[in-house]
Amino acid sequence: MERTKVARLLASEPGREVLAKGWVRTKRESSNVAFVHLNDGSTINNIQIVCDRKEFADELSRISTGACIGVTGRLEASKGSGQAVEIQAGKIEIYGECDPNSYPLQKKGHTMEFLREHANLRPRTNTFGAVLRIRHNMAFAIHKFFNDKGFYYLNTPLITASDCEGAGDMFQVTTLPLDNVPRCEDGSIDYSKDFFGTHTSLTVSGQLEGELGATALGEIYTFGPTFRAENSNTPRHLAEFWMIEPEMAFYDIKDNMDLAEEFIKYLVKWALDNCQDDLQFLNDHFDKELLKRLEGIGDEDFARITYTDGIDILEDAVAHGHKFDVPVQWGMDLQSEHERYLVEQHYGKPVIVTDYPKDIKAFYMKQNEDGKTVRGMDVLFPKIGEIIGGSERESDYGKLVSRIDELHMNHDTLEWYLDTRRFGTCPHSGFGIGFERLLMFVTGMENIRDVIPFPRTPGNVKF
Ligand code: 4AD
Ligand code: MG
């Protein structure tokens, strides 16, 4: 007999023979019968298997939480409450027993910290099943959103010789022998002997190549892993995270903001429409405000302010007695506490901040007339802070080159990129959204390590 997934079984009419396969969540025995709850990952909900205790005495003695079984039997209307249908077991095949004395996941709830230490098994928990199904749904919706708009999915390289953000937090890629590194005459490392014949790293962003795509195909997006060696052990930073980076020819900063807002609203609505059971579970067990917060996103326009307006609001807050750990001053990089004040206390909704001081932003952002600010934009979200970073790009060759010089960046690794400005340059814009930051918002998870299957953070690379 062909296996039917639990999600389908739960939605079907009783009265036929079925075969279900999955992992046992719980087993409960009463006088004559035992109830086994089976989950196969197709839904957060389990199917209840009703087994005659005498008939299945041997099987039941081998079945415990975590065991993998296949059950053939009749799908019947459930006599108990809590489920519409259940399977009256006719035959049970045990694929894999699970020793209750050594299996780390028990019936009782575990702390998130405990589950992180068992990240190899945590996909089998309700919480991570929900998060991972939502993660999949969001990835699908991202491709759908852009495909429906005529954007092309561009695959950009993970190994790079340039530093897109100029922040220097990059993981080096090398095949040089670290115990006997070849040296040049002046004592510096001879990268000409390295695999690519030059110094290389894992990319922090696909944007620079994304711009090559946009200035040829019009509108593209990337969606791939990015790597940052910042040693920041916060609930919002990963060393390996996924980023989606749309890049659009002929978009100015306003078009860029409009797209970012439409994009996030689309994804949140997609989650509400397609991940109801999982969101309801997370709402019930973790964050009672989750659904309300998600539903609220579609209703309101995001606030749009300049960085200078933002500083004014923060200074005003200080004048009225609000205390920040890092003092507020024009020119500073906004810290999480400042971003959250603007979003959570002042506006009570997402905020898009534009026109940042050029000294705290990357070289490629379009320079404003004032000589002090650039046409960057950050989208700030409740509980998370920055979820999107982007900008209109500097399309003027001369201005871009003088910025690269001011920042003492290496021209050689950027000549190929400068060709976009040399040959038929065009106004264009783009942004990057951290996939895991988005998922934190959508799932209500408070630690970024809990929205990616196998997190990479300083000192943490086990699974
Ligand atoms: O603001 P960032 O650094 O911007 C860029 O990389 C641009 N090249 C994007 C572009 O314009 N195409 O990063 C973009 C987003 C952030 O807003 C944040 O959501 C996420 O990437 N992000 C991280 N997420 C998890 N862990 C980290 N260490 C992150 N660093 C950035
Ligand atoms: Mg940023």
Using brief descriptors, characterize the structure shown.
463 residues; alpha+beta; OB fold (Dihydrolipoamide Acetyltransferase, E2P); BirA Bifunctional Protein, domain 2; 2 domains; eight-stranded mixed beta sheet; 13 helices; binds 4-amino-1,4-dioxobutan-2-aminium adenosine-5'-monophosphate; binds magnesium ion
Bound molecules: 4-amino-1,4-dioxobutan-2-aminium adenosine-5'-monophosphate, magnesium ion
The CATH class designation of the largest domain is Alpha Beta
In total, how many beta strands?
A: 16
Corresponding CATH architecture of the largest domain: 2-Layer Sandwich
Mean pLDDT: 96
User: Helicity level, as a percent range?
Assistant: 25-40%
- Evaluate the radius of gyration: 27 Å
Shape: elongated
Main beta-sheet annotation: 8 strands, mixed
Strand order of the largest sheet: 6-10-11-16-15-14-13-12
Instruction: Tally the structural domains.
Output: 2
CATH topology of the largest domain: BirA Bifunctional Protein, domain 2
Low-confidence stretches: none
User: CATH homologous superfamily name of the largest domain?
Assistant: Bira Bifunctional Protein, Domain 2
By secondary-structure content and strand pairing, the structural class works out as alpha+beta
Structure description:
By secondary structure, the chain is of the alpha+beta class. It has 2 domains: 6-96, OB fold (Dihydrolipoamide Acetyltransferase, E2P), CATH 2.40.50.140; 123-169 and 204-450, BirA Bifunctional Protein, domain 2 (2-Layer Sandwich). The chain is 31% helix and 24% strand. A hairpin with a 7-residue loop joins strand 2 and strand 3. Helix 4 (126-148) packs across helix 6 (253-274), helix 4 (126-148) crosses helix 7 and helix 6 packs across helix 8. The longest helix has 23 residues, at 126-148. The protein is elongated and about 85 Å long. Bound molecules: 4-amino-1,4-dioxobutan-2-aminium adenosine-5'-monophosphate and magnesium ion.
